[in-house]
Amino acid sequence: MRRPALYSSSRPAPAQQATAAAQPAPETAQPSPRRQRWRLAARSPAMMWSAIALLAALLAMSLTLHMGPAPRKITQADINAAVLKTLSSQPLPSEYARAYETIRPSVVRVVSYVKKGRLKDEKTARLHAAKPKPLGPAQGADRQEADDDEEVEAGVGTGVVIVDKGVILTNLHVVSGADSVKVTFHDGLESSATITGAQPENDLAVLQAAKIPDDMIAATMRSTGDLAPGDKALVVGFPFGIGPSASGGVISGLNRSFRSPEGKQEMTNLIQFDAAANPGNSGGPLVTMEGEVVGIVTAILNPTPARTFLGIGFAVPIENAAQAAGLPPF
Known about the structure:
By secondary structure, the protein is of the alpha+beta class. It has a domain at 100-127 and 148-324: Thrombin, subunit H, CATH 2.40.10.120. It is built from nine helices and twelve strands. The chain has helices spanning 14-22, 33-42, 45-67, 76-89, 95-103, 122-127, 141-149, 172-175, 318-324, and strands at residues 107-115, 151-163, 167-171, 180-184, 190-199, 204-209, 232-237, 245-259, 266-273, 285-287, 293-300, 313-317. The model is unreliable at 1-10 and 129-139 (pLDDT under 50).
């Protein structure tokens, strides 16, 4: 009987099978000990970080070579040279200018008003005479009364804000006898003011403004304890109504005395200064180069009737002025 054909893989001949059986089976190839150590090291975290550090060092070295040498260290001489160059190319404002800018927001113009009916002196009446009368019928008594009630400017002076709620120091002679007082602040705001205090022996008055600017800044007051002749000083005010005006000078002396031209009053313990002051400066601040108030300008010495500045002015120390306003002494 015929056998069916069967499919099978190729087999070696019997002789080849015997030869293959006689040879030993090849062993699996094993890596060398050195290669095994490298494989274990590659798996170690310490080795990995060492490699990263090495690469970072190589990268830094490469950047250094491309960027060139490190910049030179800046010395004090370099800083001094830069400051001198800036000062020569951009001049700074003077000490007086800086002091003026500091005190300016605290300085006010003070004007006193009186009714025409109170002007008894003929000379004063002529200075404040009304406009020429218009042509027409004569004015009646009612009209005359209205004219008598009309207020006219009696005096112009200066004041300085010492409390940001609108408390102002000025001279008593600026507002004495006034029917009303008005002050004008640095931003142009005009307000009525009332006299809330006085210190006649030092010719000082305290005013309270009805309205104040939103950004009101009070002056900084400084003790006169370390003030000395020769120290620079600045006077700010409205001489003859012009201003605000600034004049610079020095402290000429301390503990001076002054008697008014009429001889009615003598003031003591005054600060003498030589910064220009004229009628209208009365009540204004005498300030240091830091813009701090050390006195209130109150008088000038002039033996002639001209009432103009001859080089000697007097100010009440701020300690006395602060007490007039009820503030504690330094």
